[in-house]
Design brief:
alpha/beta; 6-stranded antiparallel β-barrel; 5-stranded parallel β-sheet
Length: 297
């Protein structure tokens, strides 16, 4: 078992898993099992909207993450890339990769080249399937774009979540409809426009909620991400929240007036009550201590 009190840095890490690790899903977890106590993630970051942006991967993997900007390393040969890793991780003895791993300029090197170049242990993890489907970040991203949250969550192994700061909204929600928290979401891949049953986390508390994503067709037409806390038991003042997606309830649509919209919102709330409960944003593991979630090169 790993020692979760260990402070992990590039100086004492002996094993790394290499990949994008977008989503830190069920497939990635099989790589993590090979790392042991002194492990870390080498994250090849393309700086795009992600399932799990940048160093948030550390929270879900329970390992320190070291970001390598794709644009900075894409011109390296396979030998140069491995030499870079050995220079950064002085005690590197093991590299863990997936079955389809490719690296180096034009992705011209593969797992066989890795075994030839690296003078330590190389572990290649077979493809992971769940419910008959291969678990891949690309597939999960497409499911999220389609709004197929149920299937995406099964492949990830947890509820898909996004985080953002609370910003000023239209001001008509609490007066004419229901109170909502308007969110500024950056770096996360947003699900398809519509209304979702969700759980909203503020600090150490999680509340059942209904979340809207899309253009406000019945009011000002502007795009927004808004979450309504069921029963309005949440604190009135909060600056940052996380939203976990449980189920897609319906498409975004335009209503003739605010009264029709309010009635639909009531139906959304009643449906959401059937599937909201306690949310756990993590894998249920104890967080280990390391140096600032790792650092980029």
């Amino acid at each position: 078992m790993p020692n979760f009190s260990t402070l992990l840095t590039k100086d004492n890490i002996t094993a790394v898993a290499i990949g994008h690790f977008d989503g830190v899903h069920r497939g990635h977890k099989q790589l993590l099992k090979q790392l042991g106590e002194f492990g870390g993630l080498v994250v090849i970051d393309k700086n795009k909207a992600n399932i799990t942006p940048k160093l948030k991967r550390a929270e879900y993997s329970n390992y320190p993450c070291f970001l390598y900007d794709f644009e900075s390393i894409k011109g390296l040969s396979g030998e140069e890339f491995i030499a870079l890793l050995k220079s950064d991780f002085k005690n590197l003895k093991k590299i863990v990769v997936g079955f389809d791993f490719r690296f180096g300029r034009n992705r011209a090197w593969d797992k066989h080249d890795l075994k030839r170049i690296f003078d330590g242990e190389v572990v290649v993890v077979d493809e992971v399937c769940y419910d008959g489907m291969g678990v891949h970040s690309s597939s999960i991203r497409e499911l999220i774009r389609q709004g197929n949250i149920d299937e995406a969550n099964r492949l990830i192994g947890r509820e898909y979540s996004i985080e953002g700061n609370v910003i000023k909204g239209q001001g008509i929600g609490a007066k004419e409809l229901v109170a909502t928290l308007n969110l500024d979401i950056k770096s996360y891949l947003l699900p398809r426009e519509g209304v979702y049953a969700t759980r909203t986390r503020m600090g150490s508390y999680t509340y059942g909620s209904v979340t809207f994503i899309g253009n406000r067709l019945s009011t000002d037409g502007n795009f927004s991400v808004e979450t309504h806390i069921l029963d309005e038991v949440a604190p009135k003042v909060t600056k940052h929240v996380a939203v976990c997606f449980i189920k897609r309830l319906r498409d975004n649509k335009k209503f003739n007036n605010l009264s029709e919209l309010k009635e639909q919102i009531k139906r959304d709330i009643n449906e959401a009550r059937q599937c909201v409960g306690v949310c756990d944003l993590f894998f249920g593991e104890t967080m280990r201590y390391f140096d600032g979630y790792g650092a980029g090169i």
